[in-house]
Design a protein that fits this description.
By secondary structure, the protein is an alpha/beta fold. 42% of the residues lie in helices and 11% in strands. Helix 9 (205-219) crosses helix 10 (221-228), helix 9 (205-219) packs across helix 12 and helix 12 (240-251) packs across helix 13.
Length: 292
């Protein structure tokens, strides 16, 4: 895969980090939104360093698209490490009702101090952070009960911070989605590309789709074969490019001369993953666990 897929990132990390650090004194906690299909790959490795001692609530969003067994394993792993983690889905509403309770549980000591000083019902404030296209603005709109934050199904829509009030006693600060400067793990970049966190203009979509075919064959062979009318024995030994072409042929994506329309096939594969048509998929499991 071309190196630009791994090395290209928005140049806003330093600016967003500065804004986060400036706003941290004004918030009671940080709500970290991850993609439930790739919790490790979608988590900024610098988040704890950035927020310091500020409490964090981790939301595994897009849970309706993710393998529920693996999501449960991820939540357990976060909790084992002392973090509060919840699965949720900003589209279906799954798990959203648990967020206010979790916020109050995390901030119970602070709420008690407010009440002891006569500040009963004082509004709480949270900063929402996460990578592009992970659903931060949609979560805010769900909690606010109205369309308050701009939402589109593409990365880079929120470009500046914005405060949103909700009817649950919580004010939310929506931060721009940002990717960090570099990845030490090539697979992290691949996962972000497959799930739509990186703008398509900078991707080699054909190579990303080829990698996706390999992942599906390894992790979810039954779903993959069913979706594209494949047989396990016919795909077991295929090279990734040949596997990718076979999917295109089964879909009838052909051009003159019987060749496969590669770009159309690649776009279809990535769209179907991102829209849940391949089934409930997780591209990574916690270390020591398995998708199988």
């Amino acid at each position: 895969m071309p190196s630009n897929i791994i090395q290209w990132f928005p140049g806003h990390m330093a600016k967003t980090r500065r804004i986060m650090q400036e706003c941290l004194p004004d918030v009671d906690l940080v709500i970290e939104v991850l993609d439930a299909r790739i919790p490790y790959s979608s988590r900024n490795p610098e988040i704890k360093k950035i927020v310091g001692q500020k409490p964090i609530l981790t939301l595994l969003n897009k849970a309706s698209l993710a393998d529920p067994v693996i999501v449960k394993q991820w939540c357990a792993r976060f909790r084992e490490n002392g973090a509060e983690a919840l699965p949720c889905d900003c589209v279906t509403g799954e798990g959203m009702q648990a967020i206010p309770t979790a916020v109050r549980r995390i901030l119970s000591d602070k709420i008690e101090r407010y009440e002891s000083r006569g500040m009963v019902g004082r509004r709480l404030r949270a900063m929402i952070v996460g990578i592009p296209n992970v659903g931060k603005s949609s979560i805010i709109n769900r909690l606010a009960g109205s369309r308050r934050a701009r939402v589109e199904n593409r990365p880079g829509v929120t470009v500046q911070k914005q405060w949103v009030s909700t009817p649950i006693g919580l004010d939310l600060l929506d931060m721009p989605g940002v990717l960090w400067p570099k990845f030490d793990d090539r697979t992290v970049g691949e996962n972000l590309a497959m799930t739509g966190a990186i703008k398509e203009q900078v991707l080699n979509v054909i190579e990303i789709a080829m990698l996706l075919c390999g992942r599906m064959r390894d992790l979810y062979p039954t779903e993959f074969c069913t979706r594209y009318k494949l047989k396990a024995e016919e795909i077991a030994e295929l090279e990734l490019y040949d596997l990718f072409l076979l999917v295109g042929r089964r879909r009838g994506f052909l051009i003159s001369g019987g060749e496969v329309h590669e770009e159309r096939t690649a776009t279809m594969l990535l769209d179907e993953l991102q829209n849940g048509k391949l089934g409930r998929i997780c591209l990574e499991a916690p270390k020591g666990e398995s998708n199988a």
